[in-house]
Structures are given as structure tokens and as C-alpha cells.
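The record is kept unedited without comment:

——
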Amino acid sequence: MNSLKEVPVSPVVEADGALQFLDNLAAKHDEVMSYQSDYGRVFFVNHPDDVKSVIGSANYVRTPLLSISLGQGLITSDGAYWHNQRRLAQPMFHAHCMPGFATVVANYMGALLSDWEDSRLCDMPFDIAVQMRYVTMQVIMKAMFSIDLDLKTAEEWDTVFQVVISDTSPFALALFNQPATVSPTRNKVLKQSLGAVNDIVYKLIADRKKLKDQPRDLLTLLVNGEYKKQEEPLTDLQIRDEVITMLFAGHETTAIAISWTLHLLGKHPDAMQRVVAEIDHELKGEIPSYQDLPRLSELKKVFEESMRLYPPVWVLTRQAKEEDEIAGYRIPAKALVIVSPYTTQRHPDFWNEPTRFDPERFSDEQSAGRHRTAYIPFLSGRHQCLGKPFALMEGQLMLAMLLQRYSIAPVAGFSVTPDPCATLRLKNGMMVTATKRGADAAQ
């Protein structure tokens, strides 16, 4: 590889936030960029061809930036260990499981929407991003672990998880030369929150091991290690890592995707009108099921376009095990490499007017022939998100039920801005008003 071009270290203009930092890199349109960070030299790739070379190759392994909270779960592990853990969890995400999971989603979402009316929450502005996290927490706990959380407990658990996610994020943001402050008080709160999360999860594990008639769910698969090549049972720590990873990936990211979709619909009344009209026409007031989703094509396009503009997983970090070549450039062994779905999904060579909200990009006609790595909200290749079918089902079903029963409008003067943490959150949430729709639109 001696004839390969060396990637120069580029001076990066100071940026107000990690997203602008990445936008500045992507705007140079070079195939490969590099810069100095607190973690050493970092290589940035953005073209879909080069992104595929990274996320599709076993040479680029995950880094431990989120391991402080997630341990060695499916999101942070790699190699043979990751492969075995993925095979263990895979049966829970087969297509034949989705109709049953959709019923779980419909039950909890229906209860939340009724609670809004009973508690008169919809009579005043409220943060819908928080509400979406509560219900996705309930859904993932029931679907994966057979635990029926009431709304109050879901709120309490979400509060603890938010502290862990928020206080883990600065370690990752330092990769983009963002200032990070560490204080004894913040460290203490993080340790306390991690301790609370561990107490919750270890109790779930202990209770399941004592249970004689165990439900067929992910927790039982983890506890019993049910697949042919599992030679040793998983330790409680290994189970803990997978449970916490599933809670993080299964409630935080989907809630964020739903919230960004509602934000974009609020800014584009014409798209909102088309989606609501489709829901009313296709569902005729009935609670939607999994089988109804293929008929809600306008909703699907809006949801996919939202995840293009604001992918919940906005950046990935990898490390090269061995020296490699990308686009004719040398990538040294042990080099840190970053890929950003946020910037790749806005690459001007693959997306016309890339910052414009246009759900028609995801029509069958416009989707045909698109580069497979130009759109990667769930990644692609060997590390494609195992929960992709679940997340797509859950997000669309929750949106359909919400817009069937309520008219959602943004609060005037409230500014929604991205907050890149471990996920691409909405800074300060999303304040809306919800007005009950007519009886002919929903049950």
C-alpha cells in the first residue's frame, strides 16, 4: 500500500456544535478527510461508497465510547462475541413476531392517548418528545421482557436512563473537538443513575431465573442461552449489558424518530394534511394493526424522510484493525474512523436539495436504484440494526394512532433544534398542543 495517497490533516474551522463540525467537513466534498482530536487523529468518510467500505468491513470494529453505560452489548461489541450475541437475540425479531408486537404497541399507545384526555394534558402545551419516550419504554419492556410497566414507573425509569445517556455523551462529543467539562457532582450523579439502572436490570434477571414458567421472550433467551453453539451460560453482567442496550436502542431512538417526524409535519401542513387524510380513509376510525401499515404509504414516506434529515443514530465510530485503503487513501492501522448518517444522508450527489423536506424521495419511483448506503438510519451490512423491522412498525403505528385521534400543532415561538448526544435528540424537547379530533376520525 506504499503507493496510496496520504490523507492530509485538515485545519477545521471552529464549529458551534458537533453537527456543524461534521457539516464543515462534509462541505469540502473530499472523499476522505482527517483532523486532530482529543482522541488523536480521526478520519472522516462521507461518500456512500466509502461509508460502505467502513461499515461493511470486519476490519473496522466498534470503539468503546458508549461502553461506560452499555457495557459489551450488541451496540458496542464486535467480532465473534458480537456475532454470538446477535444470533441469540435474532429469533425475537423474525417477521412472524411483528403482528404480536404491534398489538403491544397499540395497547400502550391507546392507553397513553386516553390518559391525555383523562388528565387534561391536551388542554395545555406539553412536551410530546417526553411522552413518546414514556410509551416506547413501556412497549420495549413488554415486548422484549414481558414486564407490564404502568405509566408512572415508565416515567421514573426514563428519568434515570436520560441521566445516564446525557452524562455519557460528552465522552463521545470530545471526538468532534467539542468542549467537555467533568465535575465531581456530575460524576456522582452518573454513578448513582448507573447504579439505579443496574439495580433494575439485575432484579429483572434474578426474578426471571426464579420463575418456573418462563415466557418466550428476549430475557428468557438471554438467561437460558438458547442456541446450539452456546457452550456456557451468559453471566449476569453479560445479560445486563444486552438488556440495557435493548432498552436504550428500543425506546430512546424510536421516540426521537417519532418526535422529529411530528416536528417536520408541524412545519409542513400540506404533508400533515395528506397523512391525516390517508389515515382517515384507510383506517376508517378503527385501531390500526400491523396488517394495515402497508396501506399507509404517505405516512411511511414521511417517516423515512424524517429519519433521513434527523437520523436518531447520527454518527458511528470505528477503529481500523489493520492498515487499509479507502478511495485510494491510506488508512493506518488503529486509526479512528467516523461515519455520519446525518451528513451522508444529505450528500448533494445523491439527494437533490438535500436539506429540503420532501417525502416523495421515498416513493417507489425515486427510491429505485438509489445507492444502498446513501440512506442508513439503521446502518447496513453486517451491523444493520437487528430491531429495524420493530422500529419501523412501532414508529408508524404510534404516529397513525396519534394523528387519528389528535390534531398536533407546534407551540408558537418554541424553537426546536437538534441536540447531538448519544442520539440526535430535540434540544429542550418539543412543545405542542393536542386537540381531540372528531368521533368519525378515531374510536
Observations:
- The chain has a mean pLDDT of 89.
